[in-house]
Amino acid sequence: NAGVTQTPKFRVLKTGQSMTLLCAQDMNHEYMYWYRQDPGMGLRLIHYSVGEGTTAKGEVPDGYNVSRLKKQNFLLGLESAAPSQTSVYFCASRGYSGQNTEAFFGQGTRLTVV
Amino acid sequence: AQSVAQPEDQVNVAEGNPLTVKCTYSVSGNPYLFWYVQYPNRGLQFLLKYITGDNLVKGSYGFEAEFNKSQTSFHLKKPSALVSDSALYFCAVRDNSGGYQKVTFGTGTKLQVIP
Questions:
Q1: CA A112 – CA A100 distance, rounded (Å)
Q2: Where are the beta strands (DSSP E) in chain A?
Q3: Which among A31, A43, A105 is the nearest to B101, CB-wise?
């Protein structure tokens, strides 16, 4: 029962470096999401995907890019990391059964940009 | 635009006492409402949801929530709190009137159950 798996779990980057966060789900879900969690701000949607080959911007997309080449994977990229991107990142997936299904979350990636 | 408000950053309750974590929402259409729980260093876990029907929804670990359309609220409740219920709780809403699959989360309420 892997569910939603995020790699890596922790990462420290220097300002200007790039990296990719990987999210993999084994539930054949259509929808996948990337959120960031910051103290006092809850979860904010960065990008999302409604199916393989599709992506769309969420609330806070600047500085991030995503790709969904395979249905089970959703990648989040930071091309040039900034200290403001220090956060905990969560991936989530959701199946399509009408519009009332709940999301399943990964365990998070704690990213520090110095 | 849809929004969720969790007015309390933290709720403290004694073990064995009833607990309530408050949530109010705003949507243009009919809401789908969710509660999630987050334990330290973990992802969010689904607790319960309201889609339609009975206003009182029962979920995991003895939690329940009451949907109140007139007050646009979806408060989380439990009759008797356990120390193990201490965690961060998020309310979330999705508007069912459009095709956009976005869920909006509240800022979270930290529940502290005191032994």
A1: 34
A2: 4-7, 10-13, 19-25, 31-38, 42-49, 56-57, 64-67, 73-78, 87-94, 104-105, 109-113
A3: A31
C-beta atoms of B43 and A106 within 8 A: yes
Contact predicate B34/B92, CB 8 Å: yes
Q: Tell me: the pLDDT tens digits for A92-108? A: 998 876 656 788 999 99
Q: pLDDT exceeding 70 applies to what percent of chain A?
A: 96
Minimal Cβ distance to A105: which of B44, B49, B51: B44
* A5 burial level (CB within 10 Å; 0-12, 13-18, 19+): middle
Both tokens of A12, joined, read: 């420290």
Distance CA B19, CA B51 (A): 23
Distance CA A25, CA A21 (A): 13
Give chain B positions within 8 Å (CB) of A94. 101
Tokens linked to A55: 């992506």
Amino acid at A111: L
Closest to B19 in 3D by CA, of B35, B4, B31, B3: B35
